[in-house]
Design brief:
The chain has helices at about 65-80, 100-115, 120-130, 135-140, 180-190, 195-215, 220-240, 250-265, 285-295; strands spanning about 5-15, 35-50, 55-60, 60, 85-90, 145, 155-160, 165-170, 270, 280, 300-305, 315. The chain folds into 2 domains: about 5-160 and about 310-315, Ribosomal Protein S5, domain 2 (2-Layer Sandwich); about 165-305, GHMP kinase, C-terminal domain (Alpha-Beta Plaits, 2-Layer Sandwich), CATH 3.30.70. Helix 2 crosses helix 3 (about 120-130) and helix 6 runs antiparallel to helix 7 (about 220-240). Strands 1, 2, 3, 4, 5, 6, 7 and 12 form an 8-stranded mixed beta sheet that branches. Strands 9-10-8-11 form a 4-stranded antiparallel beta sheet. By secondary structure, the protein is of the alpha+beta class. Bound molecules: (3R)-3-hydroxy-3-methyl-5-(phosphonooxy)pentanoic acid. (3R)-3-hydroxy-3-methyl-5-(phosphonooxy)pentanoic acid binds near residues 20, 34, 183 and 273.
């Protein structure tokens, strides 16, 4: 007798100290530590139920997602799981490169754990989420989250979302962000960029500064280290052969506006992942004028505003049918 379907939600996250590069092996173990914030407004809702054969749907459409298939194969090496129907809905534009795999794997492992009584605590769910996508390890937790070797590459909560309620403006500069996939890009950077050794060597210091900044709620220090980590990752990407060129004109225009705002005294800093969208991180209460200013930038299609969100969790109501 199959059990009832189980639904979990998880939010996307953005790294303030970036992860770009893996250790050898199959388990998505990062080469460097990272620190992120979980975004309340970008949510994935995933329902898991027993089925006759594995089927994965994202926003109602069946997908032949090899990342999910590979992840399910790893799960089955540890547990005797039946064939699964997985139905995942994002309330944000999936094509816009807003890290749906992070929230997706965090929600999936949370739903699967509850559906099949795997007995995983949040740390174990984080390890399993990481095996799908390393950034997903961080979406298991809310607020400010770390991912490092000391915790055996399970993510861990650093500060709760309501303890320092930063706000984020996401500036969408392109809806068809067809980027080089992160795994391919990371491998290429490690192989070809002359900056790669420096990236690896300098990561621990950025990570330590960012942790201090969060613990002390020191916005200026966090701004400085987060922008540095972001720009250093993009310097690594641009020095890769062939280059990983994720920015467009509107990305640069948005970065210029964020820099001008901060120079004029607005507490805001930028970060950009492996795509063209700009995330402007604001001190509590400052996202409205930042959103308005970014909304006026030529080439920016729209802006989303978000607070910090909680960790992955099961919810009572079922996902909308697909
Ligand atoms: O976990 P992945 O494969 O989605 O890679 C994430 C890479 C960045 O978003 C660029 C940085 C990060 O730490 O999230």
């Amino acid at each position: 007798m199959p059990g009832p379907p189980v639904t979990a939600i998880a939010h996307s996250n953005i790294a303030l100290v970036k992860y770009w590069g893996k250790r050898p092996g199959e388990d998505n173990v990062p080469a460097t530590p990272s620190l992120s914030i979980t975004l309340e407004a970008l949510t994935t809702r995933t329902t898991v139920r027993e089925a006759r054969a594995d089927v994965v749907r994202v926003n109602g459409e069946p997908v032949g997602d090899t990342k999910v298939a590979g992840w399910l194969a790893k799960m089955r090496a540890a547990w005797d799981l039946p064939p699964l129907a997985v139905s995942s809905h994002n309330d944000f534009p999936t094509s816009a490169g807003l890290a749906s795999s992070a929230s997706g794997f965090a929600a999936l492992v949370t739903a699967a754990d509850a559906a099949f009584g795997l007995g995983l605590d949040a740390t174990a769910r984080s390890v399993w989420a990481r095996r799908g996508s390393a950034s997903a390890a961080r979406s298991v937790f809310g607020g400010f989250v770390t991912l490092d070797a000391e915790a055996a590459w399970a993510a861990a909560p650093l500060l709760a979302e309501d303890a320092w309620p930063l706000e984020v403006v996401v500036a969408i500069t392109s809806d068809n962000a067809k980027a080089v996939p992160s795994t391919v890009g990371m491998e290429r950077s490690a192989r070809t960029s002359p900056f790669h050794d420096g990236w690896i060597r300098s990561a621990a210091e950025d990570y330590a500064s960012a942790r201090q900044a969060v613990k002390r709620r020191d916005f200026d220090l966090l701004a400085e280290v987060a922008e540095h980590s972001c720009l250093k990752m993009h310097a690594l990407m641009l020095s890769t052969r062939p280059p990983l060129w994720y920015w467009n004109e509107a990305t640069l225009a948005a970065l210029a506006v964020v820099r001008e705002l901060r120079a004029s005294g607005v507490p805001v800093f930028f970060t950009v992942d492996a795509g063209p969208q700009v995330k402007a991180v604001c001190a509590p209460g400052h996202s409205e004028p930042v959103g308005a200013a970014l909304g006026r930038v030529r080439g920016i299609r729209r802006v989303l505003r978000s607070g910090l969100g909680g960790g992955a969790r099961c919810v009572a109501e079922p996902a909308s049918p697909s």
